[in-house]
């Protein structure tokens, strides 16, 4: 699309600076506004009226500060793009001047837009909450893992025999330890109390009886640890709360996927054996829209899985992944790759072949991740489902064979 005007926005917590230039990079205004309703209204009134389609607004991603502003502008039919700060930083280095102000930053963004707007991918602003939910679920999952790690260390001290004998993450066992958080406490508990706790919980029953637990407690080497008992009980309460929160977030995540009409994309991902629903939801939340990427190479780079080669003269450094992309997406792709290797014969075969060629485990997984992303890109772009039976027999027209047949 042809644009006549370019606007660079530099946003802080309470203010934003706007610079408007024309296609010849003449500055039409460069002004600061308060980040409130009146400030945004004043800014939009200062733009050329009746020419929204000829105006491109660029805003540097600034954590959470830019969200309300960019959403307001998009909702009022302005064309906006969110820019990676690394791009603007590197572009600014082309200038020999070291001065840095909000006005200069806004002008730099506007000039960057005027020069490179045709190479920028389409933007997707409808899935911000979808992404927020996915990242909150990721955070909660990490918190659960921390609680479980701490819990195991505490049980090893307060009741080591139980930890060696049974799965302590069984709901019934956790409920028992919440009330009686040590061998000493279980010694004092009646057999009836223990049996009531074990039998009252839903789900899989523990592979141990109340009598056996009492017997373990009688001969336990655990000493008196009142502080650790208290911490263990509290940790289990926190674990239950986090697990319930995780279930609620997963429901919201599925609803958010439906709201942005990504159900078909979800089904496409699930057609690949080894990719689960929750992992697929995380993947879609992070990429937002496959149309943002002009090729599978851009998708790989966005995940930070593209190779970074260091060479200078006769020196050749080790090739590593750049890790300059989306770390949340990179984590999801790694998990997806591990799972398809375990459960999908096609990817397992490719992984084994790369290992036979001399790649160590992690690099073989990385090679498989590249293959997986290439296939996913083609499937989502052409709205096709993964069909292993036609893996080597897809026509080459339209590039789809290339996306599938990566030998």
Structure characterization notes:
The protein is an alpha/beta fold. The chain is built from 18 helices and 9 strands. Helix 7 (about 170-180) packs across helix 9 (about 190-200), helix 12 (about 265-270) crosses helix 13 and helix 15 (about 325-345) crosses helix 16 (about 345-355). It is elongated and about 85 Å long. The two termini are about 40 Å apart.
Task: Write a brief structural summary.
The protein is α/β, with parallel strands linked by helices and 407 residues long. The chain contains 18 helices and nine strands.
Mean pLDDT: 87
How many domains in all?
3
Question: Low-confidence segments, ≥5 residues, pLDDT <50?
Answer: 393-407
Sheet-strand content, in percent, reads 5-15%
Total number of β-strand segments?
A: 9
**Radius of gyration computed on alpha carbons:** 28 Å
Q: How far is the N terminus from the C terminus?
A: 38 Å
Oligomer: single chain
| N-to-C series of helices and strands | EEEHEHEHHHHHHHHHHHHEEEEHHHH
Number of helices: 18
> Which class do the helix and strand fractions yield?
alpha/beta
Overall spatial form: elongated
Strand order of the largest sheet: 3-2-1-4-5
Largest sheet: 5 strands, mixed
Helix content: 55-70%
Describe the structure using short key phrases:
Transpos_IS110, 3 domains, DNA binding, Transposase_20, Nucleotidyltransferase, domain 5, two-stranded antiparallel ribbon, 18 helices, transposase activity, Helix Hairpins, 407 residues, alpha/beta, five-stranded mixed beta sheet, Transp_IS110-like_N
